[in-house]
Amino acid sequence: MNNRPHEENWTLPEATVSGSYGHGWDTTKRFFLELFILVIILSAAAIPMGIANEPGGFHSAGTAFLKLFGFAYWLLLYAAINYGVLYGFVRGARGETPEVNDIFKVTDNYVNVVLANLVTTVIIVIGFMALIVPGIYFACRLVFVPYLVVERKMEVVPALRESWDMSQGKAGMIFLMGLTAIPIALLGLLMCGVGILFSLVWIHAAFASLYVALAPVQAPAIFPEIPAPPVSDPPVQDEARDTPEVKKENEAEPVKKVKKAKRDADKK
Q1: Single pTM value for the model
Q2: How far apart are CA 84 and CA 114, in angstroms?
Q3: Are residues 210 and 20 in contact, defined by beta-carbon separation less than 8 angstroms?
């Protein structure tokens, strides 16, 4: 994988609506082809869900199976593709070249990707059932969960907590970013419909830029290298001292000294 480092002129975005969309526009211009391919893949992956979710109830075994297939496809496959695409946009926002292979990054944390997508969807749906406004609020506070699960390989609950902390005091700004995305998407639809793909690239890049602004990569701490103390060679033992003859002579040395002292006393 081509992990191109950040260039000196590639600064971090500001955690504002204008800063995120401005940085998202720069990211779109710089990596348009790579990001455009990711959006096409995501759009193509959504086609089976559109077919499975055509209007109609569970009036027959065939339609019931189609509905169940659509749900399983959304839960087990589409969510993973979506999270992988979002990771590619994060790499672009950080100044790295996105790649199609970024989609497979989700395999490193696939179970948590599936669970995170299910849990956040349930929370937001429950919020919308409670007079809509709580659902919008929950969606704004949990918007960073996909990025955290894939990029940081976080588990579901820690990712929910981290996204909640990152969006503290910023729910209104995130909601305003969502409102700003509406005219951008409408402008894309006016361009023969195909322009919506261009709009999606910019919108995804803007939200990825906001995440990067709130979760910058920190450089690892650099500690001074401490030289290792010199290792002295072990003392070389005199092998001659360990021979049996030398040991016998050493043992007899005190006896010789006693005899010599006795002879000197007799002479006196």
Answers
A1: 0.76
A2: 12
A3: yes
In percent, the amount of the chain with pLDDT more than 90 equals 62
Contact 201, 29 (CB under 8 A): no
Selection from 217, 223, 168, 196 nearest residue 10 by Cα = 217
pLDDT digits (tens, 9 = 90+) for 22-76: 999 999 999 999 999 999 999 999 998 877 676 655 566 777 788 888 899 999 9
The whole-angstrom separation of Cα 213 and Cα 210 is 5
Q: Which long-range contacts (CB under 8 A, 24 or more apart) does 39-45 make?
A: 39/85, 39/197, 39/200, 39/201, 39/204, 40/197, 41/81, 41/85, 41/100, 41/103, 42/81, 42/82, 42/85, 43/197, 43/200, 45/77, 45/78, 45/81, 45/82
| pLDDT digit string, tens, across residues 220-235 | 333 344 555 665 555 5
Residue 3 has pLDDT above 70, yes or no: no
Q: Where are the domains of the chain?
A: 17-214
